[in-house]
Amino acid sequence: MSGTAEIDDVATAKYLWTVRDLPPYRPVARKLMLLTTRENVPLSEVQEVLRTDAAFAADVLRLANSPLIGMRGEITSIMQAVLMLGLERIKALATTLSLRAFLTGGDPSGVLRQSWRHNLAAAILCQRLARLVHLDSDTCYTAGLLHDIGRLAFLRTCRKKYELVLAQSRDSDFDLLQREKSIFGIDHCEAGASILEQWGFPQELREAVLLHHRRPQPGASGLLPVVYAGWQIADALGFSTVKNESACGDIAEIAAVLPAGARRQLGEEFDGLAEEVAFKINAIECSLV
Description:
The protein contains 17 helices and no strands. The chain is mostly helical and 289 residues long. It folds into 2 domains: 24-103, no CATH class; 108-287, Hypothetical protein af1432, CATH 1.10.3210.10. The longest helix is centred in the N-terminal third of the chain and has 23 residues, at 78-100. The protein is globular, with a radius of gyration of 18 Å. The termini are far apart.
């Protein structure tokens, strides 16, 4: 059964709760996403969209000047940001800002923040892996960032109940997705795909979110192997959602879903990767204080 069919098979009654009480997807971010469906969008139009939300534009500038982007010179205006970064990178930053809204009203030091940091780690790692498999880095970043949006929704809408589920997940025989289904009627992969459908995200990203717990078939291409490897490596490096959970997972086994050349390069670059990811996550969070 295709990913699209599985998304369509999720009953509306099951996922309506996932958009209840969730932060709305920022209108300016939605407009930016719609711009990417068109060809040859004038940069001046991108600038005008960002100017409709001054606070959002200011946050975009702060992220554009953070180590996440790594520009040598300072970006001082929205037009300069658009010119230097391009629409896809601006859209990725806009998605980062929109998902950060899930933290509002929650425990800043609890599991919700751990889940947010896990998503950021996966995004940064997917961006790195994109270069190794010759995919668009901003699309891979966005896919990694969104992969666990369903879990953020669970934590946002029914935190205490979901924290109990996560506490049980340390048992190696525990089936997280099945437990989620038994309690909520939907697992976090389905919930995430449903939220993105409600928000109008493209099918490619919805499928990556829906299927990110399934190990891709050998030789598979596209976003799925990158997202699967990205979140697994994030966990293995210690950026797991469950706080104080020890790093686990064999990197060689995780990376086996990637092409041979990408596996070799990842092995050569692996030392220091955890420190690099932590540095970028902290830089993002400091930029948005």
